[in-house]
Inverse folding.
């Protein structure tokens, strides 16, 4: 058995029986066990898993990329089916987060308290550092800001010590799966910057075989998009399954730049390595 990556929740669905939502949830299945990375924003990951014949009770653990609701609100529906599992993330995932624009302030953080997650899970493991959460599967820890462009999105805020400030997403982490031919990099929203994330992972793990997940790229500035595309070309991964917050406006550019190596992700998609 090789490595199988299944998108359980994404903005778009692959076939009529699957459901889509603004969210992301990806299961990584390896011979050593399965890890769920993010849970989407509802019970859609659970429903799509059932349709795909994926038994969430077999999960070894769950990891959360960052605190936004579209990656974390599905956690309790997942735990209620999967049973008690360990949940990994950064301590900042529980900070209140907001979208603010045009006089509107909307809560977009995790809708659960630490206490609620503790009560349903097999424990919450919060940390800043890189951690191996299952054999050859790693959470990156905080992503080093090493790229020339680090984009701070103007509408996204975090509340620290009672003060609202532009969100610098210290909590943003990626999942890395080691294989004999390089690593599979799985991102949540890549709010730390997809270029920073790629460089961080290359520096610590070497060759990147595939990139799967959200990139937030379409929402950043043109200079960042250009430099990130340039970097992704250099990476020369065999598959770029860029999805979720990558944004449909970038699809045409990605097809032009990467041809068949670019695969728009969808709920229900199965990728074998
Ligand atoms: Fe997201
Ligand atoms: Fe996000």
């Amino acid at each position: 058995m090789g490595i199988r990556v299944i998108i359980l929740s994404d903005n778009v669905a692959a076939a009529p029986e699957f459901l889509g939502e603004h969210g992301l949830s990806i299961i990584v299945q390896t011979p050593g066990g399965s890890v769920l990375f993010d849970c989407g924003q509802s019970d859609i990951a659970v429903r799509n898993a059932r349709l795909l014949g994926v038994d969430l009770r077999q999960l070894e653990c769950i990891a959360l990329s960052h605190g936004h609701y579209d990656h974390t609100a599905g956690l309790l529906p997942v735990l209620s089916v999967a049973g008690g599992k360990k949940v990994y993330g950064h301590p900042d995932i529980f900070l209140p987060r907001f979208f603010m624009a045009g006089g509107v302030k909307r809560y977009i953080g995790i809708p659960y308290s630490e206490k609620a997650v503790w009560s349903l899970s097999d424990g919450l493991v919060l940390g800043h550092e890189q951690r191996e959460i299952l054999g050859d599967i790693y959470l990156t820890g905080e992503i080093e800001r090493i790229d020339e462009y680090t984009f701070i999105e103007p509408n996204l805020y975090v509340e620290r010590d009672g003060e609202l400030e532009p969100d610098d997403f210290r909590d943003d982490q990626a999942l890395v799966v080691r294989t004999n031919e390089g690593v599979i990099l799985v991102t949540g929203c890549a709010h730390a910057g997809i270029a920073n994330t790629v460089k961080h992972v290359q520096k610590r793990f070497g060759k990147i075989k595939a990139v799967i997940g959200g990139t937030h790229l379409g929402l950043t500035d043109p200079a960042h998009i250009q430099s990130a595309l340039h970097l992704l070309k250099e990476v020369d991964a065999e598959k770029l399954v860029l999805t979720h917050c990558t944004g449909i406006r970038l699809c045409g550019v990605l097809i032009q730049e990467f041809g068949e190596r670019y695969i728009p992700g969808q709920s229900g998609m199965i990728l074998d390595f």
